[in-house]
Specification:
By secondary structure, this protein is an alpha/beta fold. It has 14 helices and nine strands. Bound molecules: fe (ii) ion.
Length: 394
């Protein structure tokens, strides 16, 4: 079904494969840059990833103007401001983000700071507030396969004093270049591989089912699910499986393109609230909540979930399942996938496994119903409905 009207946008150039890092210098030069700042964290430097990137640039016409490694797992506006100070002081003209969600979000915050020529990014919070601004070549090298942040127009940055996660949404936040190189994800531990991979799966499933879906976002979501089905268990079982790593990097990116255009829904609304109230890691919350939200959405989405059985389980299972049972079978397949990942690497299956208590639920539910992701979920959910989902997931 084609919507009467829709928009689709993805201007990010993608370099995928071995030696992708070595092509960054050429691409930066094409973008008119010569002195990038590298943003990363000390953990990634510790395992040698920063050095690999530095060596890939060596001998080129690109010189790193600064390396900023002080990005914690939960970045904040203060980190963005500090990165901005160093960026300006060291005369950089572009930047490379090497890391997972937190580093990429920090880089997007820095992008706002520099392109909008401001010292206070808070005034740009919200959707579509950024103007085109100053040109600033922006390269992202993801080191996890899940957030899809290298192709999304969203940045989430914490404001610790106000206890809020500020959300910025703008096409101007999209990077110029996403670099998927197997050297960047081979050392990711199984547990993080699994939870970030499940985040990508939720992006694809919500992207395929949310109200803003369209044939273009469907194509990305569908392919992402196929790749995840086959390669997530492989990447968890053997991190050195280059083919599985590259498939997951591409799946994560495709799921990111899908949801950046069609948006996410109730799994993310409740998941964000679990993160905000009870500090549940995003991928863990996604893993735990996905089947419960699918059950909740089932009456509205039976047809779409039924179709998703094909990429989720493959043609044999799809063909062997009567049409009327495909949607519930799809949910069962998701549960089974989660269970197997849990057995393989300890992925949590219940909210209580990640420290959420009964007493936390009212605050999580209240936060969830005010989350923007709820707006595009195909089925409405209020306080009572969200509370019931949370109780089942506890
Ligand atoms: Fe997500």
């Amino acid at each position: 079904m084609i919507p009467q009207y829709f928009e689709f946008y993805n201007p990010v150039k993608i370099l995928s494969g071995s030696l992708a890092l070595e092509n960054i210098a050429f691409e930066l030069k094409q973008l008119g840059a010569s002195r990038p700042m590298l943003l990363t964290n000390t953990m990634l430097t510790g395992v040698g990833l920063t050095r690999i990137v530095q060596e890939a640039l060596r001998g080129s016409e690109i010189t790193l103007g600064a390396v900023f490694e002080e990005i914690p797992p939960d970045s904040s506006i203060h980190v963005v401001n500090e990165a901005g100070r160093i960026f300006r002081a060291s005369g950089c003209d572009s930047f490379i983000a090497l890391g997972g969600g937190s580093v990429i979000d920090t880089a997007k915050g820095l992008h706002i700071l520099i392109t909008q020529e401001t010292d206070d990014i808070m005034q740009y919070m919200g959707a579509d507030i950024l103007r085109a601004g100053k040109r600033l070549p922006f390269v992202v090298i993801p080191t996890t396969a899940g957030t899809g942040s290298e192709v999304t127009l969203v940045a989430v940055i914490a404001h610790p004093e106000r206890h809020v996660k500020m959300e910025f949404t703008s096409y101007h936040l999209l990077p110029d270049l996403a670099v998927l190189d197997p050297r960047m994800t081979v050392s990711l531990p199984p547990r993080i591989t699994a939870s970030t991979g499940m985040d990508a799966l939720v992006h694809a499933i919500e992207g395929y089912t949310c109200n803003q879906k369209n044939p273009l976002s469907d194509a990305y979501a569908w392919s992402a699910i196929e790749l995840i089905r086959e390669h997530l268990p492989r990447a968890v079982a053997n991190g050195k499986d280059i083919e599985a790593r590259m498939a997951m990097a591409n799946a994560s990116l495709m799921a990111g393109v899908a949801f950046s255009n069609s948006m996410v829904g109730l799994v993310h609304a409740i998941g964000h609230a679990c993160g905000g109230v009870s500090k549940v890691a995003h991928g863990d919350a996604m893993t735990i909540l996905l089947p419960h939200v699918m059950v909740y959405n089932l009456d509205m989405l039976a047809d779409l979930y039924g179709r998703l059985l094909l990429p989720l389980a493959g043609p044999e299972v799809y063909a062997a399942t009567p049409a009327a049972e495909r949607a519930t079978k799809a949910i069962a397949v998701v549960r089974e996938m989660t269970r197997q990942l849990s057995q393989a690497c300890g992925l949590p299956m219940r909210l209580r496994d990640v420290g959420v208590t009964e007493a936390d639920l009212p605050a999580i539910a209240r936060t969830a119903i005010n989350d923007g992701a709820l707006l595009l979920n195909p089925k409405e959910a209020g306080l009572n409905e969200v509370t019931l989902i949370l109780q089942k997931a506890l």
